[in-house]
Amino acid sequence: MIFLSALPLAFGTWWSFYLFSATAPLTTAWLYTLRLYTFLLLGCCLLLPYQLTEILFSLHLQLKLSATFVYGFLAAVNLLSNLQKQLARINYAAKMKGVSYHVFSPRLYLKLIVFALDQADALSQAMHSQGFEEGRPRTLVYTEKKPRFQWVISFFLIFCYTFLAFL
Q1: What keywords sit in the KW lines (predicted)?
Q2: At 75, is the pLDDT very low, low, confident or very high (cuts 50, 70, 90)?
């Protein structure tokens, strides 16, 4: 699915380098298309086996990403699943009344915005009750696991890309 979803980008890359390359347009087009898929495959090998929380906590530990950003991003992702459930409830309630909401209906968005604001307020109160304060250090109970096969695949892909680039 990832390779198919990147197919329009790959075709656009290939086509633009084929049309606008000054020297060896066919070779340049294939090289940059291969580069796009190589980076995509490398990112998949490194990130797909992990959950979003593991990736964010790893970025927090390794790259010193702000804890406020990490927890705020996780709160937003969790809010999205609640919004999807609420959207299903709103549509169900509307059908019970004989009303049909479409994608451009302002009433639908108003109800979702009110729900999101209510959820944001509840999240803010929960964070405050747990002792969260901006800028204070947080305790983290997360250990990072790095399987060896991912490193082997990553180095193999980097080697293959380098070899094909010089070929």
Answers
A1: Membrane, Transmembrane, Transmembrane helix
A2: confident
